[in-house]
Amino acid sequence: MKKVPEGDNQPRFVCERCQTIHYQNPKIVAGCLPVWRDSVLLCRRAIEPRYGLWTLPAGFMENAETVLEAALRETHEEARARVDIIDLYALFNLPHVNQVYMMFRAELLDLDYAAGAETLEVCLFKQQEIPWEQIAFRTIDQTLKFYFIDREAGKFRFHMGDIVREHERTEFVQRRQGQVVVR
């Protein structure tokens, strides 16, 4: 049964027999933006959702691992790539699907990469070669756009915002001091 437990302010699933509260919280997706010189490494998805489209290596964080460990694991599982993490680069809230994306900027340690079990192919792309119309997720599209803007400016900064669903479309919203600044 769903109800607001005593001392709480959110409806939760509560067992009627033992009164155990079953919390449902957002899932964390961790991944990398692997870079080699002037190219980024993308993976073409071999699974749904968005089969056949391109993405950065990323996936759901597992219990008993850190966000950094999850990003490294997903990069190895999907692209068989070894990377050196530089910094946390982007954080996106997706309230409509209860997810939080945490994307790390990383350098490929070598060119020894290959498609993993969830990947059809892995490829390095220069900015002008990116298949923009075939990017799987809005979070990945936005991460790549931020990266190329920052690279052109010669300064990488941390990016944070929300991907919200409005009328069957997803929009990127960035807030500063409570005000919407980019849409």
Keywords:
183 residues, ten-stranded mixed beta sheet, three-stranded antiparallel beta sheet, globular
Explained architecture:
By secondary structure, this protein is of the alpha+beta class. It has a single domain (27-182), classed as Nucleoside Triphosphate Pyrophosphohydrolase (Alpha-Beta Complex). Helices cover 16% and strands 43% of the residues. It has 2 helices and 13 strands. The protein has helices at residues 67-79, 138-153, and strands at residues 2-3, 12-14, 21-22, 27-36, 39-45, 54-55, 58-60, 83-94, 99-108, 119-126, 159-166, 169-176, 179-182. Strands 4, 5, 6, 7, 8, 9, 10, 11, 12 and 13 form a 10-stranded mixed beta sheet that branches. A hairpin with a 2-residue loop joins strand 4 and strand 5. The chain is globular. It starts with a strand and ends with a strand. The relative contact order is 0.18.
